[in-house]
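During the no-cost extension, the postdoctoral fellow (Dr. R.K.) reprocessed legacy sequence entries with the updated structure-token encoder. One reprocessed record is reproduced below for audit purposes.
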Amino acid sequence: MTLALLRSKAFTTLLSLVLLVDLGQAIQETTTTASTSKDWWETAQFYQIYPRSFKDSDGDGIGDLNGITSKLEYLKDLGVTAAWLSPIFTSPMVDFGYDISDFFDIQPEYGTLDDFRNLIKKANELGLKIILDFVPNHSSDENDWFKKSVKREKGYADYYIWHDGKVNATTGKREPPSNWLQYFRGSAWQWNEERQQYYLHQFAVQQPDLNYRSPDVVAQMKRVLRYWLNEGVAGFRCDTVPTLFEVQPDADGQYPDEAISGITQDPDDRNFLTAKYVEDQPETIDMVYQWRTVLDDYQRIYGGNSSVLLIETYSPAWYTMQFYGNRSVNGAHLPFNFNFISVIEKNGLSAKTVQYSIDLWLQNMPAGRTPNWVLGNHDRRRAASRYGLKHIDAMNMLVMILPGASVTYQGEELGMTDGEISWEDTVDPWACNSNPNIFEQYTRDPERTPFQWTSGTNAGFTQGPTTWLPLAADYKTINVETESAADHSHLTIYKSLTALRRSSKTLQNGNTRYKVLSEDVFVVKRSLSGAASIIYVSNFGSSTVTVNLTEFDKTLPASLGLLIRSLDSKKTDGVKYAIGQLELESGEALVFSTE
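Re-encoded structure tokens follow.
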């Protein structure tokens, strides 16, 4: 959700300073215990579907569950392990599904529970897993829970964060309890006339925050998890987890004000203040551990495959890594690793920022846990737009070659780029709460444009006359139909990568070594005793360079067989290339084998 815009600009400023250190001569190496018994999620290729934009089956211009079901064969052919669906639950759609009015049913414009069950059935037949978006921080203000809480009904009175506010000593007027700001601009407190109290909403005013200090709320949200496990889902991606708890009031029942951050002069912008009291509280970590217990208990009782818990957090490493758990308790299987987004977005794409992004995760991750690599999502500009289209193959290769799990946002396999959305066409509430002069700083619409299936009418997304968001301009050349027919395309490269990952024991279980070479060149080696090593090399610079890979690893053979090459590479698959004088054009990325 909105945490997917980096929450702390101060943190990224620190990253910028750290990156001034010369990392080019360092060789980083990690050891992965070779195993033939890894659980399914440990080497999975997760694929995020934004249902509203994936495939429309009924011509209303909005993607839906039956549309997803009709394209499951595409995901299977793509090499996907599990598809994660952004929220599909009943919602007024103020925040396009992240404002849930019924956690136990399906939004009608997406379909019905029977449609969802058909999707699960078809996915099971194809050997695909379905993961749902769990939105625990808040509900819609149209949820019955909130309506009952407003009325102070028994069992629901403290379901949300309520407060009388405070009286201004000078004016005598009632004011919000604190100066806290919401992500969608403005105060995080809203007065409710019926209850005569303020409620907290860290996101839109229609998204009141649930109160996790209420045992009833904790039990209710665990009920939500079990309900969808019973429907056959393979796990959950947990939205905006760091905002789950806020600091408790003091002895007088008052909340502390946040300090001015100095990051921006815009008093309505969330970053105008620090987030010391409204994010990253210690209780949040324990709540994630409790959710993991729900999943583990469900498997223990009912059997079957393990269910996975994915956590959205843009928190600093010292906090994020706690979600994994410790020696005495298991936490999230995979706290999402957004370093390839946040670090590179602020510091630019280079061999050094790539290495630092990897270091920041692997050097902080607890022993025995599984890393993961994310290029994009529905809240951040598409990877091909952020990195530049000529680097999308290099980055897709990188997340497939590195150890652990990887996550693809729909369209990254094609090289889809952001759409251009005018103020008049803007629907994202974050942008709509701003104005025509600044909305582009906040809008998430450009990365949510409809998926590009064909070069025909409406990109094959819908048979209807319109689409809920305008199409991206490049749909006639960047689409599944065109790229599937080509001998060499972003899509065929992606499929080659997933096939290699499934077949290579080295990529599944091998050790990892990586280095910045010759300033612009980044190299990764995956190795496993008794198996061929896999070597990745990419030129992130703006000009052609020649490198000697023996400077990276003297044990490499004199020549390596080319397995996969980026779109514009002029090299030939299957040919062996001498590594002593390897020429790499700007943007060129290659995957080699020692065999």
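DSSP finds 17 helices and 24 strands in the chain. Residues 282-302 form the longest helix (21 residues). The remaining legacy entries will be reprocessed before the final report is submitted.
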